[in-house]
Design goal:
elongated; 24% helix; 5-stranded antiparallel beta sheet; 4-stranded antiparallel beta sheet; 41% strand; alpha+beta; single chain
Length: 169
């Protein structure tokens, strides 16, 4: 089993950068588990969250640093970072079982985003464990459609031991 590593890669927001990064990883034989890209805090930059399956990540980081459009790379420790994915899943929900399906969805704070005569589409956000657990519980009802965003992540703020802050959500 390959180990998954989460990279936060700040790049110049220019055409072709995504292709260069993904091609580099493919040429090195690393499987991209998920890749999400969006605008970063500063204009002209974009932030990529790349989940790569690899036994050793140092070579990947060295190769990425060689790309001229890459500004910064950080490997995110799952214990020290915030990770979220969004999933939309359509579940069979005939009227006879609709109540059961909605109860399961409520446990996971899933939001019904589309309701049809025989199915309900839910939006679920959270870490990959939460999404997998939700899928396992609704799978017996029948999954008719599924899409996930891929992981987005950022490092947690370094906490001062004297502060008594707690995470929300």
């Amino acid at each position: 089993m390959q180990i998954q590593h989460t990279l936060s890669v700040l790049v110049e927001d220019r055409p072709g950068v995504l292709a260069r990064v993904s091609l580099l990883l493919a040429r090195r034989g690393f499987n991209i588990h998920s890749l999400a890209v969006g605008p970063a805090r500063d204009d002209g930059t974009a932030l990529m969250t790349i989940v790569v399956e690899a036994p050793e990540l140092e070579q990947v980081k060295k190769q990425l640093h060689k790309l001229i459009n890459v500004v910064k790379i950080a490997e995110l420790d799952p214990e020290q970072s915030l990770e979220r994915e969004i999933m939309i899943v359509r579940v069979s929900a005939p009227s006879s079982r609709r109540g059961e399906v909605l109860e399961v969805a409520a446990i996971f704070k899933a939001i019904a985003v589309d309701v049809g005569p025989a199915t309900i589409a839910f939006q679920v956000t959270g870490d990959s464990t939460k999404l997998r657990d939700f899928l396992n519980l609704v799978r017996p009802y029948g999954i008719t459609d599924l899409v996930t965003s891929g992981r987005i992540a950022m490092a947690r703020e370094v906490k001062n031991n004297s502060a008594s802050l707690r995470a929300i959500g």
